[in-house]
């Protein structure tokens, strides 16, 4: 302790007061104006609990200077107490009432304690770290990102949604990005380049060495959602005419096999695919057996242009862990592993659910408000068209509405019941189409069944709604008009739910995306026009 | 050819005519009335193409008798041509314009050609066969099912949706079901027993031998959606103090390893989990190394009571192929393989999408109409309540509606715009909650952002809709009333989209299921009441 700077009594008092009220921000504001010596002195005057709390408010930058000035036992205690084990326990906990990693990181950042925030990231696996990073507002995200080392950044980068990955990659210098990219598997690198805007992506590609650049260019030539887009080229291939013993010796030379190696690929002299040799078979074979005799030649390879949906279905149907990818003429190009397939299944399902609300699953949850507004307005605009379509139908019946106000009160009921009934059929058919369980082969049976359900439910709810309407408005006529309209709308809704996805697909539009909006337009138009039309005919 | 029965000229003519018109049903009807000898003679009089077509219309039962009477070369040609290769090519084809397996099977069944239909099933993998079986109407499904052998039936059974599996299992005799069950892995058997109604399930359990029954009872004691429910007990465990060479010798004795064995489990004397020994490490290790030195002791086991969602997330995050399952005190109970995890991910995503429309993903697409009607009516009933809620809100403003009919025309626009804007936020928040990317740690940031988007979009669409309304009805007042109502509804919708899932979750209700219906109620009520309320205040 080289100098003694007495801390003004009022500073001490205000700290104590802020602590008593739990106002940590004020504590930090006060601390910011103190010198290291003043802070050290202040710390020593506090009781143990207070010491720890105040210590947690001190930024990484100031820490060393203050530690030096502190009583050594106190310094040690503060450093030991702070974090690590406690942090690990917090992150491992599955208890939902505990403080979440998001809250831990954000509080740490707010307190200027970057070390603690970074420690959270260090304790997580890359994909978890990516998820956490996406959960932070952009400012905090960048400040963490700029402090991660390149190797770690690379691993995290491939797990981020495209938009987030692109924006964070662009925050890095060319050298950092190249360093991060160097750590990646080829398939991940391909994904990264595809996520980047054209310029920086090309830049990154060009900064690779010639061999890697050639491999990357090959892999980039396949569509992202094809087997070629999912494959990696880290497979190990052996020839059919060697002995198991030689294969084992060769593997021992490699020391470490690529992740997810459950089988070796067997190829001929021209690198044409012959079959696979499973490790589980390899370890149960005798050293003098030939690969040809223990390999599985029946195991079918995947065509490089096969769609990723089809790849996923094959993996699921055949319970595969990895599969070979071959060119049209049977040359082995690479392999696909189940972990990438699993990601692709998850992505597809997320895309479907987000797509139904007109959202992009690769978008950043914290994209700038203006960007998000613009994106979401597209879907609202489509909806407005269908809404005005419905309004114009209602507009045709202004005469009826003027005379019988009950029509205006009840008409949304007719439209909404149709919407729900239709969406049930729609959902069933969309799933059936996706699974290949609905096609022209059984469409008529399904149509019959759905019409039956539509009619039965139509009658059931027509009776109920009619009864309520009659009681409510004391008018028999309105009862049977609304009942009939509901029956008509439910039958039409079921029909629309069945046909819309088929028609959309014929036009190359994904029924999961546009289906429900088109359906809603149909059920609104049919619902309003049948109800108001019948009322005009019979009640006026 | 023992007898010559001249085929009547008119029969020949009508066959030729039916063939020319492509009316195969009529061909079959005519053939049914012919004797074997007449059919044989008829066949010999046709040209090659026609022969094949007519031959394909002949049922399995009649085939042998007719073949005997035919010219041997013709008989051979007909048998070679018929099916197999062509069938395989058809099934392999990815061309959507080709005839689908569903259509092939149904046509074959209709033509009474069971052999052909069964051949399709024989060419498919069990899970594909299960999908195809589900795509058939119940009658055809049963007739195929009764002709499958027990081993095959067992494999298919575990891939069927619960309802279909249960109904087909009940069609089998006890002996057949037991025979089919004998082929199954324990985890699949557990699933089957859980899918069966209590009586037959218990019956099946009791007919197993003592050891298996005990194992099954153990596994059945874990919740279906827990690690225990996903695990199998076919793992291979070794001790840490043996040499790699001994392990390899032991594996060779086993000859065949269980499917998806990528690692062996290392346990101590009390069967407590110590770590894993990867096959990829095993094959690269020297024979005299100890398991202890090459095993991965850091690889964390899964707790038997961990939820299946959490299991899936761990598999995805850590890219695992299999993982050990341990009891609370660390005893190794079994292992979970990635194929079961993948199924569980797919099931979850299907359940979510179907659930949003109030459908059960395990239900039979071709369940009896009455059953389906009853199930779907639940969702329609819930919707009716919200629809009447909206109607009652409108009912409060009958006075305004009587005076200004334009209100009735435009009010659905206000409600529907709110519904869409709200569902976008709702979808985003539900995903965020599921991924753990939204919690109290970042809720306020998200709230700010969503409110910003809601306000911006509100202003945008308010202006547009107001303009259209003013032009349509030539009234300034209605323009600014609808504009203001849309702004209010969009902001409320965004708020509701954010809060509803949080509130539902607090009450233990899955927001993915009930969220959109609750949201719709809110946006309808707010939309109608703000629009009609403002109109009452300012326009009347």
Protein architecture, described:
The structure is a homodimer of 540-residue chains. Chain A is mostly helical. Among the domains of chain A are: 9-81, no CATH class; 237-356, CBS-domain (Roll); 369-539, Tetracycline Repressor, domain 2 (Orthogonal Bundle). Chain A is built from 29 helices and six strands. Chain A has helices at residues 9-21, 24-32, 36-45, 48-56, 63-69, 72-81, 85-92, 101-110, 114-123, 126-134, 138-145, 150-157, 162-171, 174-182, 186-195, 198-206, 210-220, 227-230, 244-254, 279-282, 291-294, 308-318, 338-356, 369-395, 398-403, 405-435, 443-473, 476-506, 511-539, and strands at residues 237-239, 263-267, 273-278, 302-303, 322-326, 332-337. In chain A, strands 1-2-3 form a three-stranded mixed β-sheet. A three-stranded mixed β-sheet of chain A has the order 4-5-6. In chain A, helix 10 (126-134) crosses helix 12. The termini of chain A are far apart. The model of chain A has no long low-confidence stretch (mean pLDDT 88). At the A-B interface, helix 8, helix 10, helix 19, helix 20 and helix 22 of A face helix 8, helix 10, helix 19, helix 20 and helix 22 of B. Chains A, B: It is found in: Cell membrane; Membrane. Chains A, B: Belongs to the SLC41A transporter family. Chains A, B: Homodimer. Chains A, B: Residues 231-294 form the CBS domain.
**Largest beta-sheet characterization of chain A:** 3 strands, mixed
Output the strand order for the largest sheet of chain A. Answer: 1-2-3
Distance between the termini of chain A: 98 Å
> Count of DSSP helices of chain A?
29
Kindly report the average pLDDT value of chain A. Answer: 88
The CATH class of the domain at 369-539 in chain A, by name, is: Mainly Alpha
The total strand number of chain A stands at 6
Could you say what the CATH topology of the domain at 369-539 in chain A is called? Tetracycline Repressor, domain 2
Give the low-confidence spans of chain A. Answer: none
Please, what is the CATH homologous superfamily of the domain at 369-539 in chain A?
SLC41 divalent cation transporters, integral membrane domain
Radius of gyration of chain A: 33 Å
Regarding quaternary structure, what we see is: homodimer
Q: In what range is the share of β-strand residues of chain A?
A: 5-15%
What sort of overall outline of chain A do the alpha carbons produce when their principal axes are compared? flat
Membrane topology (chains A, B): Multi-pass membrane protein
Family (chains A, B): Belongs to the SLC41A transporter family.
Protein name (chains A, B): Magnesium transporter MgtE
Subunit structure (chains A, B): Homodimer.
């Amino acid at each position: 302790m080289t100098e003694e700077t007495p801390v003004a009594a009022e500073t001490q008092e205000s700290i104590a007061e802020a602590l008593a009220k739990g106002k940590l921000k004020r504590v930090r504001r006060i601390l910011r104006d103190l010198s290291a010596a003043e802070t050290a002195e202040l710390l020593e005057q506090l009781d143990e609990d207070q010491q720890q709390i105040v210590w947690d408010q001190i930024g990484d930058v100031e820490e060393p200077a203050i530690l030096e000035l502190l009583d050594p036992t106190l310094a040690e205690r503060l450093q030991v107490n702070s974090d690590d084990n406690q942090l690990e326990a917090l992150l491992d906990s599955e208890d939902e009432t505990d403080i979440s990693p998001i809250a831990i990181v954000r509080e740490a950042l707010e307190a200027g304690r970057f070390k603690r925030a970074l420690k959270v990231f260090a304790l997580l696996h890359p994909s978890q770290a990516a998820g956490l990073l996406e959960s932070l507002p952009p400012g905090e995200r960048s400040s963490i990102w700029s402090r991660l080392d390149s190797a770690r950044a690379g691993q995290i980068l491939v797990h981020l949604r495209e938009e987030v990955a692109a924006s964070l990659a662009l925050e890095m210098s060319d050298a950092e990005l190249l360093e991060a990219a160097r750590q990646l598997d080829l398939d991940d690198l391909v994904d990264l380049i595809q996520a980047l805007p054209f310029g920086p992506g090309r830049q990154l590609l060009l900064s690779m060495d010639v061999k890697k650049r050639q491999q990357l260019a090959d892999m980039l030539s396949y569509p992202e959602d094809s087997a070629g887009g999912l494959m990696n080229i880290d497979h190990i291939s052996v020839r059919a005419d060697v002995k198991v013993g030689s294969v084992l010796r060769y593997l021992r030379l490699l020391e470490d096999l690529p992740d997810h190696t459950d089988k070796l690929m067997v190829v001929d002299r021209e690198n044409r695919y012959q079959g696979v040799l499973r490790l589980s078979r390899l370890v149960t074979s005798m050293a003098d057996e030939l690969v040809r005799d223990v390999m599985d030649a029946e195991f079918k390879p995947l065509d490089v242009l096969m769609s990723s949906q089809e790849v996923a279905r094959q993996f699921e149907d055949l319970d595969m862990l990895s599969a070979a990818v071959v060119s049209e003429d049977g040359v082995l190009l690479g392999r696909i592993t189940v972990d990438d397939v699993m990601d692709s299944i998850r992505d597809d399902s997320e895309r479907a659910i987000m797509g139904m609300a007109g959202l992009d699953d690769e978008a950043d949850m914290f994209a700038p408000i203006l960007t998000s507004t613009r994106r979401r307005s597209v879907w609202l605009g489509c909806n407005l068209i269908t809404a005005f379509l419905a309004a114009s139908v209602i507009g045709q019946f202004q005469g009826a509405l003027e005379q019988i106000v009950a029509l205006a009160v009840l008409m949304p009921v007719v439209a909404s019941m149709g919407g729900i009934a239709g969406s049930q059929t729609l959902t069933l058919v969309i799933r059936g189409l996706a699974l290949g369980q609905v096609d022209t082969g059984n469409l008529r049976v399904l149509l019959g069944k759905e019409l039956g359900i539509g009619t039965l439910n139509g009658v059931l709810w027509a009776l109920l709604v009619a009864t309520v309407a009659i009681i409510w408005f004391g008018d028999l006529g309105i009862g049977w008009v609304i009942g009939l309209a509901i029956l008509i709308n439910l039958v039409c809704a079921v029909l629309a739910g069945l046909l819309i996805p088929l028609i959309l697909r014929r036009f190359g539009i994904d029924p999961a995306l546009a289906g429900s909006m088109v359906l809603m337009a149909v059920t609104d138009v049919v619902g309003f026009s049948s109800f108001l039309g019948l009322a005009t005919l019979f009640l006026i």
